[in-house]
Amino acid sequence: MIRVIGVLVMMTLITAACGQQYENFQGSTNREDIENMSLQDENTSDVEYENPRSMDRVGDTWGRKQDREMMKEAANQVPGVTVKRVIIEAGQAWVTVSVDRELSNEEKMDWSKQIKESVYGAVPRYNINVKIR
């Protein structure tokens, strides 16, 4: 008799535990959630659209080509400087410029520093190297 009561109590506990709904608990997923994981929800925030560095806008607002153009513009803003070439490789950027007059070694260092600061101000994610011809 005790065995029968024990089995009935165990069956009641098992069926009660299996019948609970876990939809409201944190971390639970259902079949519909799993099927819709790859779909993107409608974004109601305008913050993403204001950010020019959004990943979905790569090529339009940022990338190596745009970085190269910004570096060129920044170096050309220094008076008497003409940019000949900009090379970007990984985290390094090499900016080759020509100056409208002959410079001593000390002047080259000063101009190089000034150009480097200007380019770094425009695109700070690269280590800037300046070569004056």
TrEMBL record:
<protein>
    <recommendedName>
        <fullName>Sporulation protein</fullName>
    </recommendedName>
</protein>
<feature type="region of interest" description="Disordered">
    <location>
        <begin position="29"/>
        <end position="60"/>
    </location>
</feature>
<feature type="compositionally biased region" description="Basic and acidic residues">
    <location>
        <begin position="50"/>
        <end position="60"/>
    </location>
</feature>
<keyword id="KW-0732">Signal</keyword>
<feature type="signal peptide">
    <location>
        <begin position="1"/>
        <end position="19"/>
    </location>
</feature>
